[in-house]
Amino acid sequence: MNNVANASINTFGPSPKADFVSPSEQLITLTYGQLVQAIQEAIQPLQDRIESLEDTLASQHGEITNLRESVASLEKDRDTLSENQLIQLRLIHELKEKGKEPGKTELSRAEKIEKYLASRPDHKATFETLKGHLGIDNDLLGIAIKSLLPSGKYAIVKTPGDKRKRTLVMLPR
């Protein structure tokens, strides 16, 4: 057994054999066709990968183009909506301004109140009396009275004896 072990050790020993050549120093002989085929086989996975990346790039370019078109469309819609909102705000403002000015009905009621107060000897009337005379509710009476007050000819006072009631008074000129 020792002989077999010694023979194995001597065969694979640390000293290289005289006819041994390292793989990096070996001379390989290939034909031109074999070399071209070996190179093509070596670069084929890289070419496939490049082709796959080019396809991905082309599809992503198409997606980016579609997204840009969508964004442009959304921006156009947003601009249209903004313009519409501005128009609506202007119309609302105009309506509010119109609402501040008394209309024909309010002016007609104000004239009736003015004539009624002028015909009374004390030139005053409670809101209840004015509502009954005109046949309107509190809100409409308030609007009519508001159109009279800026002239400076009228004042609102509390009714003597009942502080919950109010009276419209025509001031002397």
Brief summary:
With 173 residues, this protein is mainly alpha-helical. The protein is 66% helix and 10% strand. α3 packs across α5.
Kindly state the percentage of residues in helix: 55-70%
Distance linking N and C termini: 147 Å
What integer is the average pLDDT?
A: 85
Rg estimate, integer Å: 52 Å
Low-confidence spans? none
What does this structure look like?
- The chain is mainly α.
- It has helices at 2-11, 32-100, 104-119, 127-134, 138-148, and strands at 124-126, 154-159, 162-170.
- The protein has five helices and three strands, in the order αααβααββ.
- The model has no long low-confidence stretch (mean pLDDT 85).
- α3 packs across α5 (138-148).
- The N and C termini lie far apart (147 Å).
- β2 (154-159) and β3 (162-170) form a beta hairpin.
- The protein has a three-stranded antiparallel beta sheet with strand order 1-3-2.
Write the layout of secondary structure elements.
Layout: H1 2-11, H2 32-100, H3 104-119, E1 124-126, H4 127-134, H5 138-148, E2 154-159, E3 162-170
Antiparallel strand pairs: 1-3, 2-3
Helix pairs in contact: 3-5
List keywords for this structure.
mainly alpha; 3 strands; 3-stranded antiparallel β-sheet; about 170 residues
